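Hi R.,

As promised on Friday, here is the backbone we talked about, encoded as structure tokens. Could you run it through your design pipeline when you get a chance and send me back a sequence?
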């Protein structure tokens, strides 16, 4: 392999004597890219990020960690750039101009780390080397580029039939309907509730006949319940994580008390990966792995500490400080840092405490699933994506960005997360379109659809108890139909450019600055993105806006789409413009010398004719 990588020499950084901290000065104007799925911007400068996969549904900009740890940054001062990939399974703090605006300091909490310095003339060269080092990106089956509808709360097979009916009656294209934890028997992984889904196989093939894929949610925790085969096999095989004294570690998640498969152990991985046959044998070919940070609702060990704390408070009269102490105790119950120190992995003979390798857990769950699929049928393609992630998992599956909110600010966050995820290899990614938590609005959903139609994973998902947000429930269903049809017309372009990016070690969604290197303005643009090689997009992400300011680094052809067949076009010169975009209009800019191929509208991906394309050129 010919990669310009030196291992072990963090060029430009000074390393502390204990090897736990490395720092470098940031030049004025230098941009720091990377870190995949985080809060804040494409340029990471000015905040402290912490790599520690966290089940936190409040993605506010004051947070330091989300579900993912993608330990790669690239410092670009315009003249030169350099990438740093840090291969380290534990907690890392990235102080990127937070403590000192001109310093970048990386701290390893538990141990020192492998640092790969990746040199290259320009960002794409560095990204390509990173990919050569960490492996090629996962490519999902073509149908996974279709539109998907999900919601926590579809309880029965009939609920899912209803959803399909809603879409089909209005002829809105759709390929996937997701099953959330409600399909399981008592939230037990690899089970279906016999009353709500009496015949999984029959149901899956009934859906398949209509061109629909059903994609169930999988959680790692295995319910402690004698007689439940997955539990019995796990105990028997020694596949679960243990405490220091060798007894099995238990924590509560959806099924109640569970044990956690030790995905860092090759035998446990194989066992769990093969368990997916429960689903694949029934014809299921799409999966989303959830809760794999892993999320811990509570442990009995920590609960007793909480109870003791409360008992102590009850001894006296509650005062203001007691009140805050009480609240703090309550807030400490789930995902408690101490709980992550209570269990161990068996890395094929080496015992390691969980917190030191925390960020590898979801990676190895995704790997277990992917390797299980391959063993079962090497030729079959599966859709697979995960909530938590770590560089390396991009070889096995994609990611979705977890429990966002139906907030305009989270639409913008989604826009900024996508190029960063692409840098680190996670090309198959997307957010809960319309927002997961809180109540969405019709206009937010429409603007979000207008952005998500360019993300490879395009799923509408929402939380139990929030306003229902299937597209057929809104008033302007015609507009939604035309927008989803536009996505389907663009699938040949999206798919081809995606596969090209995966094959070349490139990116599908890119910041402007990677392409227009000499244009300093592009270094500050975070709300316009390049999608594949031919187009730039400029999403509208503010409520009640019927247009926006854009910057064009070169002359481009602007397409204002209302649907696949309904658009107007205009040549725009390089520079600043204010352009109109009514609520149902999507702005796409074709770059000079490039063209955008479009297919005829289809209602399933399998019906798209990839050969009969019309080209819009600039
Ligand atoms: O604790 O399965 O991020 O997409 O709908 C919540 C229920 C568990 C979290 C996932 C979300 C999913 C939800 N899950």
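Update: got your reply. Pasting your designed sequence below so it's all in one thread:
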């Amino acid at each position: 392999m010919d990669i310009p990588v030196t291992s072990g020499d963090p060029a430009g950084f000074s390393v502390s004597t204990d090897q736990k901290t490395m720092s470098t000065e940031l030049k004025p104007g230098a941009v720091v890219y990377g870190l995949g799925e985080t809060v804040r911007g494409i340029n990471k400068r000015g905040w402290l990020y912490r790599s520690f996969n966290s089940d936190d549904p409040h993605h506010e900009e004051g947070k330091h960690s989300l579900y993912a740890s993608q330990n790669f940054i690239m410092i670009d001062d315009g003249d030169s750039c350099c990438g740093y990939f840090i291969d380290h399974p534990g907690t890392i703090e990235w102080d990127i101009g937070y403590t000192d605006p001109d310093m970048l300091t990386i701290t390893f909490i538990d141990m020192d780390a492998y640092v790969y310095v990746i040199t290259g003339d320009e960002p794409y060269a560095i990204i390509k080397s990173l990919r050569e080092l960490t492996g090629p990106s996962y490519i999902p089956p073509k149908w996974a580029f279709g539109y998907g509808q999900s919601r926590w709360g579809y309880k029965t097979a009939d609920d899912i039939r209803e959803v399909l009916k809603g879409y089909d009656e209005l002829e809105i294209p759709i390929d996937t309907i997701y099953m959330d934890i409600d399909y399981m028997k008592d939230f037990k992984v690899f089970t279906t509730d016999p009353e709500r889904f009496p015949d999984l196989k029959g149901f899956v093939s009934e859906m398949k006949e209509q061109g629909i894929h059903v994609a169930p949610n999988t959680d790692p925790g295995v319910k402690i319940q004698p007689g439940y085969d997955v539990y019995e096999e796990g105990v028997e095989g020694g596949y679960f994580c243990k405490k220091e004294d060798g007894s099995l570690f238990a924590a509560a998640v959806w099924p109640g008390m569970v044990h956690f498969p030790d995905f860092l152990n090759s035998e446990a991985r194989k066992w769990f990966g093969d368990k997916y046959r429960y689903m694949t044998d029934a014809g299921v070919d799409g999966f989303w792995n959830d809760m794999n940070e892993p999320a811990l609702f509570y442990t009995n060990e920590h609960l007793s500490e909480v109870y003791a704390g409360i008992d102590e408070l009850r001894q006296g009269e509650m005062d203001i400080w007691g009140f805050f102490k009480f609240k703090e105790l309550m807030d400490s119950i789930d995902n408690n840092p101490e709980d992550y120190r209570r269990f161990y992995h068996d890395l094929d003979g080496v015992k390691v405490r969980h917190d030191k390798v925390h960020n590898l857990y979801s990676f190895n769950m995704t790997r277990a699933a992917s390797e299980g699929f391959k063993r079962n049928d090497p030729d079959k393609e599966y859709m697979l994506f995960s909530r938590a992630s770590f560089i390396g998992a991009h070889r096995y599956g994609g990611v979705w960005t977890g429990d966002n909110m139906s907030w305009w600010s989270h639409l913008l966050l989604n826009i900024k997360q996508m190029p960063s995820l692409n840098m680190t290899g996670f090309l198959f990614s997307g957010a809960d379109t319309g927002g997961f938590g809180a109540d969405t609005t019709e206009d937010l959903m429409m603007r979000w659809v207008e952005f998500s139609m360019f993300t490879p994973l395009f799923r509408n998902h929402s939380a139990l108890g929030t306003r229902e947000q299937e597209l057929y429930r809104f008033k302007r269903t015609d507009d939604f139909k035309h927008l989803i049809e536009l996505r389907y017309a663009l699938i040949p372009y999206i798919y081809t450019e995606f596969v090209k990016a995966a094959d070349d070690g490139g990116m599908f969604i890119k910041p402007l600055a990677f392409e227009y290197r000499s244009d300093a303005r592009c270094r500050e643009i975070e709300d316009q993105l390049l999608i594949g090689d031919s187009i730039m997009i400029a999403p509208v992400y503010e409520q009640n806006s019927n247009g926006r300011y854009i910057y064009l680094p070169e002359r481009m052809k602007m397409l204002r789409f209302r649907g696949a067949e309904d658009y107007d076009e205009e040549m725009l010169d390089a520079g600043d413009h204010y352009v109109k975009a009514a609520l149902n209009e999507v702005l796409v800019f074709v770059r000079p010398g490039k063209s955008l191929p479009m297919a005829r509208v289809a209602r399933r991906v399998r019906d798209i004719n990839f050969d009969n394309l019309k080209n819009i050129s600039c």
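One thing I noticed while checking it: Confidence is low (pLDDT under 50) at residues 1-5.

Thanks again,
M.
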